[in-house]
Amino acid sequence: MANPPADADARRAVAPVICYPDDTLPAPDLALYRAARPGAEKLGEVIVPPREGRCFRVAAGQFFRIASVEGPQVGDLNLWNAGDLSERFYSGKTRALHGTHLTTGDRMWSAFPHLRPMATIVEDTLAWYGTDDFGGRVHDVIGTRCDPYTHALLSGGDAYHHCCHSNLTRALAGETGMAVAEAEGHVHDVLNVFMCTGFTPDTGQYFMKASPVRPGDYLEFFAEIDLLGALSACPGGDCSAEHSSDAARCHPLLVEVFAPRTGALEGWRPPAPNPYDRSHGT
């Protein structure tokens, strides 16, 4: 280990600054969304079985809710523009704009060159959890999703096919008719719904702990554009011990879609794609 310089303490004492101040970030009209929610008609639902993935569709201006129905269970969420799968959720930029964990008022942003809100969180029944003594918080955009490649790497070559990456791949292939190999290329980093995570203060390692979610808890979103979603009920269950195995007790998740009454969103329009001209200085 290198010896510290004489001014090491002074360098460490430099105050941080926020990379992307949010005072100019376009804010969602939560008052409008919440006013439109009462009386909304339920259009349908999808049950996501334990250790499996399922797709669902939501039109712009509708709501969708992800709920715990039987027991503590974490879900991995992917979103795409329903008409253009190249526009998909960008977890890294969402993290940079809102922080490592999302809650009410935060938005899921799409990939370049679109970079616009795809969905806005309008209700979070776990918002009370805050930050625990370990630094754990709920609904992260840190973890990429459990996957069979990392599992094979860490297990010495074992093949496990119900990691969230594989669950999402099978779900998308089944929904679109794509071959599995093609669908896999569209699966991307996730919003870890209900997952409780953080970083260890000593080693900086990503950790997970038992999710506080219980039956009746939910995370509800407003769809800013037409969406195709895929949700995996993680093989880790509540992620209190491990994932990528059949050891954890797992439960289904429920996705419900609601349409507000006619006129409830008067004046609202889906957000336009990012205005940057894509010239890149040429």
Verbal overview:
With about 280 residues, the chain is of the alpha+beta class. Helices cover about 15% and strands about 30% of the residues. The protein contains six helices and 13 strands. The strands form two sheets. Strands 2, 4, 5, 8, 9, 10 and 12 form a seven-stranded antiparallel beta sheet that branches. It has a six-stranded antiparallel beta sheet with strand order 1-13-3-11-7-6. Strand 4 (about 75-80) and strand 5 (about 85-90) form a beta hairpin. The chain is globular, with a radius of gyration of 20 Å. It starts with 7 loop residues before the first helix and ends in a 23-residue tail after the last strand.
Quick tags:
28% strand; alpha+beta; 7-stranded antiparallel sheet; 282 residues; single chain; 6-stranded antiparallel sheet
| pLDDT < 50 stretches | none
Largest sheet: 7 strands, antiparallel
Span of the ends, CA to CA: 45 Å
Tally the helices. 6
What overall geometry do the principal axes of the alpha carbons give? globular
Radius of gyration computed on alpha carbons? 20 Å
- Care to count the β-strands? 13
Strand content: 25-35%
Fraction in helix = 10-25%
Average pLDDT value? 97
Describe the SSE topology.
Elements: H1 8-12, H2 30-36, E1 41-48, E2 53-58, E3 63-68, E4 75-81, E5 84-88, H3 91-98, E6 107-109, E7 117-124, E8 137-140, H4 148-155, H5 164-176, H6 180-184, E9 191-199, E10 206-209, E11 218-223, E12 227-233, E13 253-259
Antiparallel strand pairs: 1-13, 2-12, 3-11, 3-13, 4-5, 4-9, 4-12, 6-7, 7-11, 8-9, 9-10
